[in-house]
Amino acid sequence: MRKHKPKPRTIEPDPRYNDAVVTRFVNMMMYDGKKSTAFGVFYDAMDLVESKSDEPAIEVFQKALRNVMPAVEVRSRRIGGATFQIPTEIRPDRRMSIAMKWMIKYSRARSGKGYANKLFAEIMAAAKGEGAAVKKREDTHRMAESNRAFAHFANR
Q: Which helix (H) or strand (E) holds 67?
């Protein structure tokens, strides 16, 4: 086991919105260390959001993230030869991380031309409470709800 808990790394806020959450999102989007390309794609998507909606793009993005964030998840736990799916609360930083990963995953899976357009479509859908990422959150919550009977195993 570790002697000390590692210090959390500080993430620099992005240049346009001055928000560390945006930088974290772009870091997850990035391929092969191409951060400036990832920022370009993200900002193109945000420009589309700005032109299509009547509120600021950063607010739409934050609303979309809030709509995708799961509150509970199921974790597999082996007890007495049987494996149970145990619903557990999620730490706030993990909730944010999962939401970002789902938005990126489902925006990449969308049909359409260009990643910026796909990301724009997923952000807009998530802000409205629709889209594949929001459906994933609902499925996760449904799974946790159906396994609520095993919640008493969580603190063992």
A: helix 57-68
Q: What is the pLDDT of residues 7-36, one digit of tens each?
A: 988 999 999 999 999 999 999 999 999 999
pTM: 0.90
User: How far is 100 from 38, CA to CA, in rounded Å?
Assistant: 14
Inside any domain, residue 84: no
Strands (E), the chain: 72-79, 82-89
Phi/psi at 85 (5° precision): -90, 110
CATH number at residue 59: 1.10.455.10
Task: Output the CA–CA distances (angstroms, integers) from residue 145 to 17, 27, 34, 86, in the order listed.
Answer: 37, 32, 40, 10
Considering its fold, how many domains does the chain have in total?
1
